[in-house]
Amino acid sequence: MQLTIKTPPDFNFQRTVLSHGWCALLPFELDREKWILTRVIDLGRARPVTARISSAKKLVRVKLSREVNKRAAEKVVRDVRHMFRLDDDLAEFYAAMSVDPEFAWISEQGAGRLLRSPTVFEDLVKMICTTNCSWALTEKMGTSLVNELGRDSDDGRKSFPKADVMAQQPVGFYRDQVRSGYRGS
User: Fold this and answer.
1) Phi then psi for 60, rounded to 5 degrees?
2) d(Cα 54, Cα 118) in Å, to the nearest integer?
3) What is the CA radius of gyration of the chain?
4) Residues 88-93: contacts with CB within 8 Å, 24+ apart?
5) What is the C-alpha separation between 87 and 79, in angstroms, rounded?
6) What is the CATH number of the domain that holds 18?
7) Per-residue pLDDT of the chain in tens (185 residues, 90 and over written 9)
8) Total domains in the fold of the chain
9) Which residues of 53-73 are buried (b: 16+ CB within 10 A; e: fewer)?
10) pTM of this prediction?
11) Which residues contact 181 (CB under 8 A, 6 or more apart)?
């Protein structure tokens, strides 16, 4: 199943994907050769679906790993719009950046959007996993959370775990399995 989403004229897919390290943390996966960002999207009670997201002229294409109903497709579109900040109006920001020649490239190249997760909860957990440690440890913690607690998509990938699932785990799980150190308590 394929969905298409119109993008603002100033949207730059590659700049947004690479805006910071989220594209390297599961359940995101980036194929830099084909410029496809893969992401498992949780659909609530239904099994998560894997979305392969790519860019075409003035739109984003979302190829799903299976057919989903209309309600689920609408959720996928909302999540992708949120992740890429497609509804954020950056005109004022770009105008401010264009005034200074040193920063004019930002508006010229459509930079300024930061890739984010579908939920604030996931972004918060990932942010906590970045504090006072190496990027390699951040990746280890994120990978462990997804692999140990995420729900299976139909292609074997896993979603980011829900808050209630994470809350059910004992502190020892975060210390021993996730290797989260002080973050686990």
Assistant:
1) -115, 135
2) 17
3) 17
4) 88/113, 89/8, 90/8, 90/10, 91/10
5) 11
6) 3.30.310.20
7) 999 999 999 999 999 999 989 999 999 999 999 999 999 999 988 999 999 999 998 999 999 999 999 999 999 999 999 999 999 999 999 999 999 999 999 988 888 899 999 999 999 999 998 888 888 999 999 999 999 999 999 999 999 999 999 999 998 888 888 887 765 65
8) 1
9) bbbeeeebbbebbeebeeebb
10) 0.90
11) 133, 175
Nearest to 163 by CA among 130, 122, 123: 122
State which amino acid sits at residue 1: M
What amino acid occupies position 97?
M
Domain hosting 169: range is: 1-185
**How far is Cα 83 from Cα 10, in angstroms, rounded to an integer?**
16
Q: Phi and psi of 94, rounded to 5°?
A: -65, -40
